[in-house]
User: Fold this.
Amino acid sequence: MSSVVFLVVFLLSILTTSAAIVSSTHHINLTTFGPVFDGIGAISGGGGETVLLPSYPKTQQQLILDYLFKPSFGAALHILKVEIGGDALSTDGAEPSHMHVENQPPNFHRGYEWWVMKQAKQRNTNIKLYGLPWEWPSWVGDGSQDPYHNLSKPLHYVQQWLHGAATIHNLHLDYIGIWNERQCNPDYVVALRQALDQSGYQETRIVAPDSAIPEANQLLQAMVSRKDLAEAVHAVGYHYPNSNPNISQETLQQLNYKRIWASEDDSSVDPPALLPTPGTPRPRKKNGGGCLVRTINQNYIQGNISSTIVWNLIMARYPQLRWDYTGLMSATDPFEGSFHVLPPVWAAAHTTQFTKPGWKLLPVGSGSGWLDFGGTYVSYTNNEGSGAGAGGDRQLTIVVEKMDANQSSCQRGERPDDQIAVTKAENVTFILSKPMGRANSYTTLVLWSSHFGTSEQQQLESALFVQRDDVPIVNQTVTIEVLPNHAYTLSTVRTATKGGQNKNSNQNTSTLSTNTVGSFPQHYHDDFDKCVLSSLPKYVAPMAGAFECVHAGAGRTGTTSLRQMSPAMSICDRGDVLPYAIIGDGFRTTYNMTMDVLLVSAGGAFVGARTKG
Assistant:
C-alpha cells in the first residue's frame, strides 16, 4: 500500500515540475539611450485603397477615422503616408494627379488624400505627414518613360503638390519620398533637397529610396561616397526588410548612424471573422495582428529600424481585388456603413498609444532585446523632462511580444526559424536602473495585453488590447507572466483606451464592428448632377486613368458629367493599362446597364462585368 502512495506522489511531482513556468531577468538601463523613435504609421495609397471612405455615412465615417488617428483610442497613428496621385493603376486602383498636363494650372481639389490628411490632423495635430509618388503623368518624362530624363520636370511636379498642400489645404508635409519601389536617382535626390530649401520647405525631410533591400543598400553605398547625397537624405526607407536590412556596422558608422525606416511593411491579410457574403475571391489568412506586433519590435531589435509604416491604412474599396483585407481596418460597405476594426489596429496600439515620436529607444542589450525563451521586448522613454507626463517626469514604455512562427507569419518575407522559434511561457522580470518619477513617485505600471491566435476562435476581439491590473514596482523591479502568442505593454502612460473604454469605464459601448451589412443597390441611377466639380461621384472607384466630374457638354441634359481626364498613359512602376473605373460589387451574375457616352476624340468605350483582381 505504501508503494502505491509513493508512486502517486512521485507522478504528481513530475507533473508539477513539467508545468512550472521558467523565469528570466532583463535590465532596463534608463541612463543610456539608443536612436530617436520616429513613430508608427500607415499608408493611404498604392492605390485606391481609401476610395470609398468619403462616401461612408457620416457617423460611421467619423468613428472609423477616430480608430485610425485619434490618440489613445485605436491605432493612434503617428505618421500618415499618402500617395501623390499619378493617374495610373498603382496596386488596387488609381489616384488622380494634381497636374494631368504640364501647361494647365494644377488642381488641388482632385482625389481624397487631401481630405484624409485633414481628417488625421483634426484628430491629432502632431501627426506626421508623408507624400510619395507611385506613378507620374506622362509629361514628367519629357518624351521618355524616365521621370529623371529632365530633372526640372519632377522637381516642378513635386513642388507644386507641396505648394497646393500648404496654400490650399494648410497642410505641411514632414516627409517627401522619391518614387515608390523604382530606381532612385541620386542626382534627383540632391536636386530635390536644394529645391525644397530654396522654396521654403526646409523642414520637409527626404526619405529615400522607398524600395526593397538591394535598392536601399545601393543608395546607402552611394551615400558613403557622396557627402551631398548623405546630407540630403533624412532616413533610408526600406520596403519589407524582414526586420534585417543587412547593413554593415561599418556603413552605419560611416553615415553617422543615419535613420533607418521600414517605410512600407506588413501587408498581412487579416480578414474579419465573418466575411461579408459572398466575400472575397482571395480569402487568404496571414494573422496580420501577430505579424505586425512582432514586426514592430523585431524591426528595431534586428534592423535598428526607428519607424515602421504599414501598407495599408484601410481597405475602403470593393472586395474583389488583389490585396483584400490588408488594411488596419476594413470598410467596404458605404451603403449601410458596416466596418471592422481588425487585429492589426490593436497590434499597433501596443506601441502607439504609449509612445510619441521624438522619444528615445533604449539600446539592444540594455533596455531592449530577445527574451530567453522566444519573443522580444523594446523599451521607449521620453528622456526625462522632454515629453508627456506631469512635471516633466520620465516616462517609460516596454512592449513585449512572444509570437511564434506559425501564428505570426507575414504576407511578405519569412524569418529564420532560430529567430522566431516556437515560444513557451516565462516569468519575465525587468530590473530598472533607477527609480521612476520624482522621489520614486511611480509605484506601479499599467499593463495591457493581447492574444493573437491562428483562428477566429483563438483570436477573439475580447482578448485583444485588454487592460489588466497594474503591476507593482518592487525594489525597482517589475515581473509579469508572458504567454506564447501574446503581446504586452507595461507603461507609466495611463491614457490608453480601447475605443474610448478602459477597465475604469462605467459602460461598455463597443463599436468595433457592425452587424448590418449593406450591398450595392439592385437598381441604381446617377446623373452626376450632385457631384462636385473635380471630384469623384459616390461609389465610383477608378482603376486606371483619371476620372472626375466636369461641366456637361454636347447638349447633354443636366449640368455635370463624369469624364476621363488623363491624356496619355502614365509612367508606372508596373506598366499602365487603359483607363477604366468600377462601381458596385463583382459577384453578380446578371447586369442590365444603360449609359450615355460622349467620345470627344478618336477612340472607344467599353463596359465590363464581374471584375476581380
